Amino acid sequence: MATNRARPGLQAGEREMLTGWLEHHRGILLWKCEGLTDEQLRQRSAPPSSMSLLGLVRHMADVERGWFRQVLLGEGVPSLYETAEDPDGDFNGVDDADVAEAFRNFETECAAARQAVADAPSLDMLSEERSERTGQQFSLRWILTHMIEEYARHNGHADLLRERIDGVTGYY
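Above: the chain's sequence. Below: its structure in token form.
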């Protein structure tokens, strides 16, 4: 699986800049998983953490679905892995998870997110759902910025996980 880790242009417009950085970080997560076996993808970081590369892919598929489909568009789709009984199901369920299905889900949710962004009239578009804390709607600009932050944080985790598995390091 070849991944695109291209960075946005240094003088890109705001939408192109935000979507470019989001694509860059999506590519980094996939890159950190390249060439590993299913068992290596399932390997946990360090007790008591349940974090693994496969768990990160599953988590980010749910995050993509959550912010773009559930919050922005207001679609009534359930989470892929989280449940009321296991809110960390994305990380906890990797031992028996279908690895190929997890990557398909990730790709599907990223494609749906790309379409939602492409269809949005502007970055000022407001979400259908409201913040549980403030009652306010989220702008698409806020969601894109948050997604970049979410990936950047988890890509740091992915870098450490990959280094622990086989010594491979690097961010770009």
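The domain at 14-166 is CATH 1.20.120.450 (Four Helix Bundle (Hemerythrin (Met), subunit A)).
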